[in-house]
Write a structure and sequence with these properties.
- The structure is a single chain.
- This protein is mainly alpha-helical.
- The chain has three helices and no strands.
- The protein has helices at residues 2-21, 28-120, 124-128.
- The longest helix is centred in the middle third of the chain and has 93 residues, at 28-120.
């Protein structure tokens, strides 16, 4: 009996909203309520529409600014990469020059040592020669 009462109450609770929705919308009370609510509903809809339009405008401005920022970033990145390439080229050039200078100095020192050895062996002409100039070996 108790279970049947609970089942009946549950059925009534489920059916009550359906009964309320099927009321006649043309009755005077319903029409009066609509007449009071329509201006407020329209005002709220207009506010929401305005907010949506403003958000879309803000999004468009942000998207345009992001595009400008991306272009500037790409230009900055390209300039940085070019500067790296230029620096690398200068380093290679400096390194190559340094290597040539080292080699020229080593060759001049080799010839100077040979000249000193000849001088120590008694060859007077070797003693009278000037020291080798590394610039002549480059």
């Amino acid at each position: 009996m108790f279970a049947r009462s609970i089942l009946t109450i549950t059925a009534l609770i489920a059916v009550a909203p359906l009964a309320a929705q099927s009321a006649d919308k043309n009755d005077p009370a319903h029409q009066a309520a609509d007449a009071r609510e329509v201006p407020q509903t329209q005002s709220l809809n207009n506010q929401v529409g305005g907010a949506i339009a403003q958000a879309q405008t803000n999004n468009a401005v942000a998207a345009a600014q992001n595009e400008i920022n991306q272009e500037q970033y790409a230009a900055d990145k390209a300039a940085y990469e070019q500067a790296l390439r230029d620096h690398h080229r200068e380093v290679l050039s400096t390194d190559a020059t340094f290597i040539r200078q080292q080699q020229a100095y080593a060759l001049a020192m080799r010839d100077w040592r040979a000249q000193v050895a000849m001088c120590k062996k008694g060859y007077k002409s070797a003693c009278d020669l000037p020291a080798p100039d590394p610039m002549k070996y480059m």
